[in-house]
Amino acid sequence: MDQKELKKYLGYVRVQARSFSRAYPDLFTFEDMYSAGEEGLALAINKYDPSKGHFPRYVWLYIKGYIQVAVRKRLQDKSRSITLANDDGDTTNAVELAGVDASQDEDISYREMMLDIRRQIDKLPTSERDYAVLTLAGWNGAEVAERMGVSDQRVAQLRKVVVEKLQRWNKAA
Questions:
Q1: What is d(CA 13, CA 160) in angstroms, rounded to the nearest whole number?
Q2: Which of 14, 13, 24 is nearest to 75 (CA)?
Q3: Closest Cα to residue 170, out of 98, 110, 104?
Q4: What 3-state class would DSSP assign to 61?
Q5: CATH label, 3-77, candidates 1.10.1740, 1.10.760, 1.25.40, 3.40.710
Q6: Deepest in the core among 22, 51, 78, 151, taking most CB within 10 A?
Q7: Which pTM value belongs to this model?
């Protein structure tokens, strides 16, 4: 690959890094996203198989996917600040999803609440657990539906069931 081509693909990295750093300004700097994009570009170049299609499109998607993975990892670490929204615009955060009320005991730490939420999620059947994990990782309803291979309506059903179960379990505790 010559320098001119490499500059073109580094331009792809810049565009993606700028987009993600603007979407998550409190979590990521442009440099964080650019670094992840460069790693993605290097992997795309090394893993490219001509049977996978047009190289520029492949590189674009690979860079975007690699940055998305970096974003999801960071969001998992920051799950307290994640707000979940359904298609109706109703929102809840991870603590509310499980029905944990921090005011019950002011000595309870955030870490303990999150561990409790994880234990509750681990009790869920596979599809419900997958929904909860993907949603808490920051995926929207359409992404969850695509990843799980289900309809948007099924994702809405899963959301309702998961929220009800987690809140019911917390009330019983």
A1: 38
A2: 24
A3: 98
A4: helix
A5: 1.10.1740
A6: 78
A7: 0.45
The tokens for 132 are 């909860």
Q: Which two tokens stand for residue 170?
A: 């917390």
Neighbours of 137 (CB within 10 A): 16
Burial 33-46 (b: 16+ CB within 10 A, else e): bbebbbbbbeebbe
C-alpha to C-alpha distance for 106 and 56, rounded to whole angstroms: 54
Is the pLDDT confidence value at 165 over 60? yes
pLDDT in tens, 49-75: 888 778 888 888 889 888 888 877 776
Give the DSSP letter string of 101-140.
Answer: -GGG-TT--HHHHHHHHHHHHHTS-HHHHHHHHHHHTT--
Rounded CA separation 32/110 (Å): 27
Q: Hey, what CATH class is 79-172 in?
A: mainly alpha
Is pLDDT at 163 greater than 80 in this prediction?
yes
Pairing status of strand 91-93 against strand 83-85 = antiparallel
Specify the length of the chain in residues. Answer: 173
